[in-house]
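User: Please predict the structure of the protein below. I'd like the answer in structure-token form so I can feed it into my own downstream comparison script.

Assistant: Understood. Taking the following sequence of 93 residues as input:
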Amino acid sequence: EFVIFLSETEHGAARGVLGKLQEVLLAAMQKNNWPATFSIGAVTFTVPPASVDEMIKLADTLMYTAKKEGKNRIKYEIHTARQDEKTMPAHAG
């Protein structure tokens, strides 16, 4: 497993880059007759979370979803600031 950060990259561009990456990696594995697949979790943030750890956690969750759904696929999500508000505790007023 590894992480790639594509900073300031729109969702569509990220999809293109990751699709090409998966294609190239699969071709290299097939050339050597290595039975490998590549499950990828990709998140585009409209507003970045407070920590890199949270970014990785969200992408990691999507990667495991891709594996459960049949492997060798890419799961994408656009994460909005509104989603962060749902998980953050309310402040006492």
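That's the full token string. Residues 11-87 form one domain.
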